[in-house]
Design brief:
Order of helices and strands: EEHHHH
Shape: elongated
Number of strands: 2
Strand order of the largest sheet: 1-2
Largest sheet: 2 strands, antiparallel
Structural class: mainly alpha
Helix content: over 70%
Distance between the termini: 30 Å
Strand content: under 5%
C-alpha cells in the first residue's frame, strides 16, 4: 500500500495519499490534513463494507463513536512518540524514561484492545457477523498501514 490508502482494500479503484504523520506542518494545515484523512478513511470503509441501507443507518453512528475512541488512542501514541523523539534528539533517554515509555506503550495497546472489545457488541447489534468481521479487518488493515509508517520513521532506542 505504500503511502496511500486505496479506495478498496484489494487495491482497486483510486488511491488517497496518506500525509506523513511526522512531518512538520503549520497548525492550520494539520487540522485540514486530519479531516481529509478521516474523510478518506470513511470512503475506504464505505467502499469495502457493501452495507444495505438499513445496515448503514445503524453502522455509521457506531463507526463515528469508535473513531472518537481511536482519536484518544492516537493522541496518546502521538504524545508517546513526541516524548521519545525529544529524548532521542537530546540523547537523554535513561532506563527510567525507557521504562515509562514501555509502560505507556503497553497501556495504549491495552486501551486499543479494550476499545475494540467494547465495540464488538455494538457492531453486532447493527450488522451481521460477517460484516462485523469485515469491518474489524478493514480497521486492522488501516491501523497496520499507519503503524508501519510510524515504525519506519521512529528510530530504534540507542
Amino acid at each position: 500500500m505504500g503511502n496511500t490508502l486505496c479506495n478498496r482494500i484489494d487495491g482497486s479503484h483510486r488511491s488517497f495519499p496518506i500525509p506523513a504523520l511526522t512531518q512538520d506542518k503549520p497548525a492550520d494545515n494539520m487540522q485540514i490534513l486530519r479531516e481529509k484523512v478521516k474523510a478518506d478513511k470513511k470512503l475506504l470503509v464505505a467502499a469495502n463494507m457493501e452495507l444495505t441501507e438499513s445496515e448503514a443507518k445503524g453502522f455509521w453512528p457506531v463507526y463515528e463513536e469508535y473513531q472518537k475512541g481511536l482519536t484518544g488512542i492516537n493522541q496518546r501514541i502521538a504524545r508517546l512518540i513526541e516524548s521519545y523523539a525529544a529524548d532521542y534528539r537530546a540523547n537523554t533517554l535513561t532506563d527510567e524514561k525507557a521504562k515509562k515509555l514501555i509502560d505507556e506503550l503497553v497501556a495504549i495497546e491495552q486501551a486499543e484492545a479494550g476499545l475494540k472489545t467494547s465495540f464488538v457488541p455494538k457492531l453486532r447489534k447493527v450488522l451481521p457477523e460477517k460484516k462485523v468481521a469485515r469491518y474489524l479487518q478493514i480497521e486492522n488493515k488501516i491501523r497496520a498501514v499507519v503503524k508501519y509508517e510510524l515504525a519506519e520513521k521512529v528510530p530504534l532506542v540507542q
